[in-house]
């Protein structure tokens, strides 16, 4: 088994006033040659956007973009004529396959409350595909005391890659074996809240760990915890 650990305090951090953002991997003005990507997982941004602010219309190409609201309301609009009033919240995810090109905007839909969400980019399996955008309600898939698969090639929610994303809700003392879904894949585990033990390491809030060249992992919650598991191909 191989592993890499990215502690919360080592992430890139920028506070732009309207946006307070942490970057696990190199992004925008944050560059770390040792943290470009984990396999096909290219971006993992932890964003807080103040009320009424957001990202204006901007382009993407040949990247799979997934947004996970954690608190508040995320409003989306794009060049595929999806309405600017398209809003999602916790328990829903936004999946955009940019392919040959798409422009989109993301805004905090609240006039008073902050928006907190994760923005994830995954390197696609094939390039120059037809752009695609969808919202998915995954609340019914997320089970208590489980590592629940919410996105995969066989789920309603999927991306243009052999990627498997699971959401773990764990009470203190919960233990489970995570078995890999794919071949020659690795898993990057990002702890949203709490404290867990995995791969012989203890991880706390907003820590991340990547593990590969292994078929399964024991996971134990040392506190009531939430984590997201990103299983992706390990690119050369």
How does this structure look, described?
- The chain has 236 residues and is mainly beta.
- The chain folds into 2 domains: 12-137, Jelly Rolls, CATH 2.60.120.10; 140-233, Sandwich (Jelly Rolls).
- 0% of the residues lie in helices and 55% in strands.
- The protein has no helices and 21 strands.
- It has strands at residues 2-6, 12-15, 19-23, 41-49, 54-60, 64-71, 73-78, 86-89, 92-97, 102-108, 115-122, 132-137, 146-151, 164-170, 175-179, 185-193, 195-198, 201-204, 208-212, 216-221, 225-233.
- The strands form 4 sheets. A 7-stranded antiparallel β-sheet has the order 2-3-4-11-6-9-12, with no helix packed on it. A 6-stranded antiparallel β-sheet has the order 1-19-16-21-14-13, with no helix packed on it.
- The protein is globular, with a radius of gyration of 17 Å.
- The two termini are 17 Å apart.
- The mean pLDDT is 95.
Tag the structure with descriptive keywords:
236 residues, mainly beta, Jelly Rolls, 6-stranded antiparallel β-sheet
Determine the structural class based on helices, strands and strand pairing: mainly beta
Query: pLDDT average, as an integer?
Result: 95
Q: Major sheet: size, sense and barrel closure? A: 7 strands, antiparallel
* CATH level-four homologous superfamily name of the largest domain: Jelly Rolls
Number of domains: 2
Discrete helix count: 0
Uncertain segments of ≥5 residues (pLDDT<50)? none
Straight-line N-to-C gap: 17 Å
Based on CA atoms alone, the radius of gyration comes out at: 17 Å
In percent terms, what proportion of residues is strand? over 45%
Under CATH, the topology of the largest domain can be stated as: Jelly Rolls
| CATH architecture descriptor text of the largest domain | Sandwich
Q: In percent, how helical is the residue content?
A: under 10%
Q: Write down how many β-strands occur, each being a DSSP E stretch of 2 or more residues.
A: 21
The order of strands across the largest sheet is 2-3-4-11-6-9-12
């Amino acid at each position: 088994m191989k592993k890499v650990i990215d502690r919360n305090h080592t992430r890139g951090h920028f506070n732009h006033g309207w946006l307070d953002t942490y970057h696990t991997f190199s992004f925008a003005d944050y560059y770390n040659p040792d943290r470009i990507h984990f396999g096909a997982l290219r971006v993992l941004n932890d964003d807080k956007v103040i009320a009424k602010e957001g990202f204006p219309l901007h382009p993407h190409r040949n990247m799979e973009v997934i947004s996970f609201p954690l608190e508040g309301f995320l409003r989306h609009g794009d060049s595929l004529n999806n309405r600017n009033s398209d809003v999602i919240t916790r328990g829903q995810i936004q999946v955009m396959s940019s392919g040959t090109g798409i422009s989109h905007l993301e805004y905090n839909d609240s006039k008073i409350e902050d928006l907190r969400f994760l923005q994830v980019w995954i390197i696609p399996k094939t390039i120059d595909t037809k752009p695609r955008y969808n919202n998915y309600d995954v609340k019914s898939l997320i089970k208590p005391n489980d590592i629940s698969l919410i996105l995969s090639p066989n789920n309603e929610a999927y991306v243009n890659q052999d990627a498997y994303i699971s959401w773990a809700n764990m009470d203190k003392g919960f233990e489970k074996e995570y078995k890999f879904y794919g071949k020659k894949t690795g898993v990057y585990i990002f702890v949203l809240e709490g404290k867990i033990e995995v791969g012989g390491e203890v991880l706390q809030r907003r820590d991340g760990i990547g593990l590969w060249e292994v078929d399964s992992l024991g996971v134990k919650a040392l506190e009531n915890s939430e984590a997201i598991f990103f299983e992706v191909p390990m690119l050369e």
